[in-house]
Structure formats: structure tokens, C-alpha cells
Design a protein that fits this description.
This protein is of the alpha/beta class and 321 residues long. It contains 14 helices and eleven strands.
Length: 321
């Protein structure tokens, strides 16, 4: 059991990641690549991706699976704090201080034997570290990038789902909403976890990261002194379904789908009506539905209302192609 101890200040500083974290998704996908669980969620992904990882990329994947074992912990330096873009995350890995690398590799070596190249990273071998960064980049490009719209849509839908408890009852209501995966009893959040751990936030707050590839139980950093995150499984309906994604027309109806797509450039009700060849009254009616669904926002400025698409709407367009 993982027990996370909050203060009132920690509750005020607890928040959600704005988007899927590319490094956490990369690391956790390496677990799912070799797992026997989650067949419905990840079976189609495994069947598609595994053949792509043969050839020259195979050596890089073996390098990554050495650092990220099928079970047990992996080094914290692979998942630096809140890096929303892969390039920024890789730069943060490359800039990891030598003492952090040494401590993380030492912990890994205490549980299993590590090859010389990995040990040399802990000794400050920057060439080996850059090779590891290249392996992360190439694996992500092959195994995750083609699925990133789906990953993003799943995570943003989870964020939207968890927003309601916050609006209705604040952060304590949010933490209570995670049952049975987590149990909230102020001031402690108990999380199902492979071993007993105590983490005291001490005013730092907690970053909640919903994840597409996290499966079963949440994941936390090993070092309690680092800025604390809790990665947990985003709810999925059937993310492994390998059938073609439905079109926007099928999801929303032709007119509403056209208005959502037109929102990508923003505009007034009249602008959107003209772009989609409908009356302003019809455009206004569909915009109201899109706003209630969290796909559009509207802001009044003097006598004009400007409409824009939300991140959830963008993710839906990307998912539907």
C-alpha cells in the first residue's frame, strides 16, 4: 500500500497534467509490450507494433527493456517532472546530474544485474546516455506516435470526467472519486501498490497524470524527495479495438461535425454558419450542444460571441481522422 500524506497546502497544489506525458507513456508501454494482461485494451496494439520492432530497432528496444524491466521499478530519471513534449523530456534526461544517474542505476543494480553500458551511465558516460535517449526517441516514433491521437483523446476524456467532482466538491471530492483504486480519508490517500510506502508531500502538492498505458495499479516515483506525481490508468472503453475509427459524421452527425471542424479556425456564429452553409440559428443550436459536451467554448466581446474548439474537441477530431 502506498500512503500519500497531504496537508491543506498540498490539496491546494494538487492538479492534473494538461496532456499525456510522452515519457511516462513510453516507459509504461514497454511494460505492456511484454505483458500478458490487458489483451482487450492492448492486444491490437501489440500485434501491430511488435513486427515493426524487428531489424535495426530491435537493438534499441533491447536496450530499453534492460532499463525498464517487465516487472519491478525503473529509474526515475527516465520520467523527469512534467515534460509535455518528447523533445523537452529527452533534453531533461540528457541533462540529468551524474549523482542522480548514479543513484538510480545503483538502485536498479541492487535488484538485478545490469550490463556494462548501463553501469557506465551511472559513472557519467554521456555517450551511453545519449544512445539511450536515441532509443527512447526511435521507439516512441515507431510504437507510440501513430497512436498519439488516440492516447491524447483517452487522457483528455479522463481529465474531463474528473473535472465534475472538483467542480462539485473540490479536491477532496476528486480524491474520493478514485475508489476502489485509491481510498481517500483526510489527510491520507491510500493507493493499491506492490509494496508498503509512505510519502509525505509537505506542501509540494501532487501532480496526477492519467495514462493510456498504465494498467491495473497507479505508479509513483521511487525517490520521495523528487516532486511527486501519481500516474494512474485512464478509463478506456475499448482502446485496443483495431477497427477503423468512426468518422466525425458518424459520431456527431454531418452538420455538427462540420461545425466542430470549422471551429479549428474559430469565429463568430455567422462565420461558422457561412463556412458550413447553414443558417445562423442552426449553427447556434449545434454550438450549444458542442459547448455542453466540452468540445467548444464561447466568449462574448461587446456585441460579438467568438467560438473556439477545446483540447477535447481537437483530440476528437484527431481520433476520428
Amino acid at each position: 500500500m502506498l500512503r500519500i500524506h497531504f496537508t491543506a497546502e498540498d490539496l491546494a497544489r494538487t492538479r492534473f497534467a494538461a496532456a499525456p506525458d510522452p515519457l511516462w507513456e513510453t516507459v509504461l508501454s514497454l511494460h505492456q509490450l511484454r505483458a500478458r494482461t490487458g489483451a482487450t485494451a492492448f492486444g491490437a496494439w501489440r500485434r501491430t507494433v511488435l513486427p515493426r520492432l524487428d531489424g535495426p530497432l530491435g537493438g534499441q528496444v533491447r536496450m530499453l527493456t534492460t532499463v525498464v524491466p517487465a516487472t519491478g521499478g525503473f529509474p526515475d530519471f527516465l520520467t523527469p517532472y512534467t515534460r509535455p513534449e518528447l523533445a523537452a523530456g529527452l533534453s531533461a534526461i540528457a541533462a540529468t546530474p551524474t549523482d542522480r544517474l548514479r543513484d538510480d542505476i545503483r538502485l536498479l543494480a541492487a535488484a538485478r544485474s545490469v550490463p556494462k553500458w548501463l553501469g557506465s551511465i551511472g559513472d557519467g558516460n554521456r555517450d551511453a546516455l545519449m544512445s539511450l535517449c536515441a532509443a527512447v526517441r526511435d521507439y516512441h516514433k515507431t510504437a507510440l506516435a501513430p497512436y498519439w491521437p488516440r492516447i491524447t483523446a483517452t487522457v483528455l476524456a479522463e481529465r474531463a470526467r474528473r473535472a465534475r467532482p472538483v467542480l462539485d466538491g473540490g479536491m477532496e471530492a476528486l480524491l474520493s472519486s478514485f475508489q476502489p483504486m485509491m481510498r481517500w480519508q483526510y489527510p491520507v490517500l491510500e493507493v493499491e501498490y506492490p509494496r508498503d510506502r509512505e510519502v509525505r508531500l509537505e506542501g509540494r502538492g501532487l501532480l496526477l497524470i492519467p495514462s493510456y498505458f498504465c494498467w491495473g495499479k497507479p505508479v509513483a516515483l521511487v525517490d520521495p524527495a523528487l516532486p511527486q506525481v501519481l500516474v494512474y490508468p485512464a478509463q478506456q472503453d475499448d482502446p485496443g479495438d483495431d477497427r477503423a475509427a468512426p468518422s466525425l459524421d458518424q459520431l456527431l452527425g454531418r452538420t455538427r461535425a462540420a461545425i466542430l471542424a470549422a471551429l479549428d479556425s474559430g469565429g463568430s456564429t455567422g462565420d461558422l454558419a457561412a463556412r458550413t452553409a447553414v443558417s445562423p440559428a442552426t449553427a447556434s443550436e449545434h454550438l450549444a450542444v458542442l459547448r455542453r459536451a466540452g468540445l467548444a467554448t464561447s466568449r462574448r466581446h461587446r456585441n460579438t460571441v467568438a467560438h473556439t474548439i477545446t483540447p477535447l474537441g481537437e483530440a476528437l477530431i484527431a481520433e476520428a481522422g
